[in-house]
Structures are given as structure tokens and as C-alpha cells.
Amino acid sequence: MSVGFFITCLVDLMRPSIGFAALRLIESAGFDVEVPMAQTCCGQPAYNSGDRATARALAARLLDQFAQFDYIVMPSGSCGGMVREHYADLFRDDPDLAFRFEQLRPKVYELTDFLVNVARLEQVPGRYDGELTYHDSCAGLRELGIKQQPRALLQLTGATLKEMEHCEQCCGFGGTFAVKYGEISGAIADEKCEHIAASGAPAVVLGDLGCMLNIEGRLRRRGDARTRVIHIAEVLAGES
């Protein structure tokens, strides 16, 4: 069956290694994967900023680029949540686009959800011999129900999971929130860094690059140069 891979803006521009790791995982599960080269943003930054016209145009473009695939997989609960939970609002006044979206919506998956509930992986290419803690990203957890899927997959690597206190608490990024409310965002990120440190794990793993960049940046500004911040795709693919 065919998979259309939505790489996401941040992965494409900031950390393409995550995209390659995700592709390796999907292909190792026996799926044919294609990365549409004309894909762009999911529209979330515009949507969160109130620019509905731009968000709607980007959403319609995604429909055009991915409608032909059996599944659409994204290495981000944030982008996945935008598509699955908010496109209906963008298309509510256009019956044609609304219908096309409802045909596409059931095919949209965040990466770990796809690997667990569609591919039903029982083994992964990667091995992780060590301790780590896991940060639950807000959109993936609250909009898509991503909670046990990454933990089940991490078990397959042999990793020892040390749960941090308040693992479901926001990291402070929140997309444009971190720009609009920098001081509040920084305070939230400081709390997250303290919980990571208290877990005793030398690495924190997560499923959204936005959270990853925010946490890593805050750790480094606080003087922590040792704690590794890793996207789960890279751990599972053995590329961490």
C-alpha cells in the first residue's frame, strides 16, 4: 500500500535527518513511500495567527498533493493535529473541499501511531542501550491521542524509559505562542528542563521537532550541554 510522507516545514528546513529516519521506518514496515516534491506547509502558523485565507490555501494544496495515497504519515503530532482536527473548520463553507477532506482525513497519521496501529511493527531497525525520558508533545497527545504508541515502540529498541514528572506538561513552544509570549514560554520551558534533569536520564526523546528545538535551546542556555534531545524517529531507526 502507498504512503505519502508529509515531511513538515521544520524537518525539511532544520533537521532533514528526521525525515530520512522516518522514511526508513515506513519502508522497513513494507510500505511504498513517496514524498511529493510540491508539498508545502500544513497551514498551522497562518491558522494560529488568524490568517484563514493563507491557511485555507495551504490546506487545499495539501489535499491536491496527497489525495491519491492510501495513507498520509507525518513525523509531527502538531501538523497531524492541524490536518485532522482543524481543516474541517477551514473548509466549512466549501462543500467540495469539505467532502474531499472527509475522504482524506481517516488516512492521516502521526508517525508512531501509524507504526503501531497500521504497520503493527513488532521490531524496529534501531537499538538503544541506555536510559531516556519521554516528553509528550501537546498536539499529539491532546488532539491525536499519542501516548502509548511511542512508548511501545521504544520498548522494541531495548531502551530503559525513566518517566519524568509532568511528562504531559507543555514545553512552552506552542508555535507562535513562544514568539508572542516569550517570557511565559521561557518560564514553562525552564520547568520542563527541570523535570528532565530530575528524571536522571541522559536523553529526552519526543515526537515533534518544534518541541525538540525549544527544549534543546533552553537546556543549552541553562548551561546543560550534555542532555541529548532526540526525535523518536531517529531512535527507532538507529540513527540517534
Describe the protein in words.
By secondary structure, this protein is α/β, with parallel strands linked by helices. The protein has 2 domains: 2-117, Rossmann fold; 131-236, 3-Layer(aba) Sandwich (Rossmann fold). Helix content is 53%, strand content 12%. The protein has 13 helices and 8 strands. The chain has helices spanning 9-14, 16-28, 44-48, 52-66, 77-90, 95-104, 111-117, 138-144, 148-157, 177-180, 182-199, 209-221, 232-236, and strands at 2-5, 32-34, 71-74, 108-110, 131-134, 160-161, 203-206, 228-231. The strands form 2 sheets. A 4-stranded parallel β-sheet has the order 2-1-3-4, with helices on both faces. α7 (111-117) packs across α9 and α11 (182-199) crosses α12 (209-221). It is globular.
Q: What would you call the shape?
A: globular
Helix share bin: 40-55%
Category from helices, strands and their pairing: alpha/beta
What would you call the quaternary organization? single chain
Number of strands: 8
- Quick one: CATH class of the largest domain? Alpha Beta
